[in-house]
Design brief:
The complex is a heterodimer of chains A (276) and B (167).
Chain A: H1 2-10, H2 12-29, H3 32-45, H4 48-103, E1 108-116, E2 125-127, E3 140-142, E4 147-154, E5 159-163, E6 170-175, E7 181-186, E8 192-198, E9 208-211, E10 223-231, E11 238-245, E12 254-258
Antiparallel strand pairs in A: 1-2, 1-12, 2-5, 3-4, 3-12, 4-5, 6-7, 6-9, 7-8, 8-11, 9-10, 10-11
Chain B: H1 2-18, H2 33-43, H3 47-63, H4 71-89, H5 95-115, H6 123-151
Helix pairs in contact in B: 1-2, 1-3, 2-3, 2-4, 3-4, 4-5, 5-6
The chains are: A alpha+beta (276), B mainly alpha (167).
Chain lengths: 276, 167
């Protein structure tokens, strides 16, 4: 017995460990009622000062989690509302375009602008309609406000539009009020001008400038724009007429491709294929 | 006075562990503040002293955990016993060794405690999904606290007063 106590004394730490194992196993074997009773007693005495604190803490933690969840929902809802607003705006715009489409006397195709600029033509527009929908080179393109340009290249599912403000674009035009003819093109500064207008012509600011139909490429009467600045040179035969384009060239989202006759085919129009 | 501080510290640690550091969310991960306190205290007390406080801390935790009663007692005393051995044989002032020992002790503590759980059929699953992450969290917290304490000279491993006892 004495030697056993000596061993315990000599290896006290190990003895405590051995004791803890035995005590642990014994505790784990006690009835659940006993353990629940002990635990209840401890909660009602030792833990009592912390009960209120713990309850408040857990309440706050739950609120925080709920708050985060609500914030997340709010963000998702905001995004959804913005998407719906955009869809509504698009819907309104398309309704307006459909209404406009019905008013156009030529067969037309509504197409979406899917890109701007190609490596060879930085100012051009790329539109999501190609030969699969009957588009061919040379067809005029308008928006709901006026002339946009013409088709200059066609792929299977897209085509390239040369816009009115491209330096190589030219169209025969007429002043709607005075019936003075001229050539509308774009100068090196990107301004749209009407050339070949005699210096004594009756051109006034605000006059509508329409396509004259000469040349056969563009039908007669498409609104190109309105006369902006008019400058008459002191010497020379022609005046300089700046045109403010009617089409919103820098904000185009959809355009109409007109299926009208190419040079020599008249205004009766080229019917688009049934596929469209 | 030192014992009174330790009693109060242990009491507060248990209260904290049951409230603020209680397993959170669906993951049931949590910190073991009591284990960290016992390890810290053991570093500057005797081995027997450390084991007795581990015994007290284990019992204190057990009385609040009727489902696994006895588990904390065995887990804490085993962890502190091994910490004593590690403290006297390894250089715990090396951060890597300190971190590794803390991680091993935390895992061992959770493994032993889990043995006393009434749901032993889920032992492996609970060990991987709950205990291992909790042990990592505990080891990480312990490493940060003890490393900072070591920098300020408040944790001096390798100086356990084991003159009065041997394994």
């Amino acid at each position: 017995m004495a030697s056993f106590l000596d061993i315990i004394k000599r290896h006290l730490a190990l003895s405590i460990w051995a004791f803890s194992i035995i005590a642990g196993i014994l505790l784990s074997q006690t009835s659940i009622d006993f353990r629940a009773g002990v635990s209840r007693l401890a909660m009602n005495s030792l833990y009592l000062p912390f009960t209120s604190f713990s309850r408040t803490y857990h309440l706050l933690r739950d609120r925080r989690v709920e708050n985060l969840r609500l914030k997340e929902e709010l963000t998702t809802s905001k995004l959804r509302v913005e998407a719906l607003k955009e869809a509504q705006r698009e819907n309104e715009r398309l309704r307006r375009l459909i209404g406009f489409s019905e008013k156009i006397e030529y067969s037309n195709l509504l197409a979406e602008v899917i890109g701007r600029g190609t490596p060879r033509m930085p100012g051009s527009l790329v539109v999501g309609a190609g030969s699969d929908r009957g588009v061919i080179v040379g067809l005029p393109v308008i928006d709901e406000n006026g002339l946009v340009g013409k088709v200059i290249a066609v792929n299977d599912r897209s085509c390239v539009i040369q816009p009115l403000n491209d330096p190589n674009f030219k169209i025969s035009a007429i002043d709607a009020r005075s019936r003075i003819n001229g050539i509308v093109s774009s100068n090196s500064r990107g301004k749209i001008i009407m050339e070949n207008v005699p210096a004594d012509a009756d051109i006034r600011r605000g006059d509508a400038v329409l396509s004259s139909g000469l040349g056969g490429l563009f039908p007669e009467g498409l609104l190109i724009g309105r006369v902006g600045r008019v400058s008459v040179p002191q010497s020379g035969l022609f005046m300089t007429v700046e045109i403010d384009p009617a089409a919103l060239l820098d904000r185009l989202e959809e355009v109409f491709i007109l299926f009208v006759g190419i040079a020599g085919e008249g205004e009766s129009g080229v019917e688009p294929p049934e596929a469209q | 006075m030192k014992n009174l501080v330790m009693i109060l510290g242990l009491y507060l640690a248990v209260a904290l562990q049951l409230s603020v550091a209680a397993p959170f969310g669906a993951s049931q991960w949590g910190f073991d503040i009591v284990l960290l306190l016992l390890i810290y205290y053991s570093s500057f007390s005797s081995r027997v002293g450390g084991m007795l406080w581990a015994l007290a801390g284990g019992v204190l935790l057990d009385v609040f955990d009727p489902a696994s009663m006895g588990g904390h007692l065995v887990a804490k005393t085993t962890a502190i016993l091994l910490f004593g051995i590690a403290d006297s044989s390894l250089n715990l002032s090396q951060p890597a060794i300190l971190g590794a020992i803390l991680l091993l002790l935390s895992i061992l503590d959770r493994m032993i405690f889990r043995l006393f759980s009434p749901f032993l059929s889920n032992y492996g699953w609970a060990l991987l999904r709950v205990d291992l992450p909790s042990a990592v969290l505990t080891a990480l917290l312990g490493f940060i606290l003890l490393y900072v304490a070591m920098r300020f000279g408040a944790f001096l491993p390798g100086r356990m007063q084991d003159a009065d006892d041997s394994l």
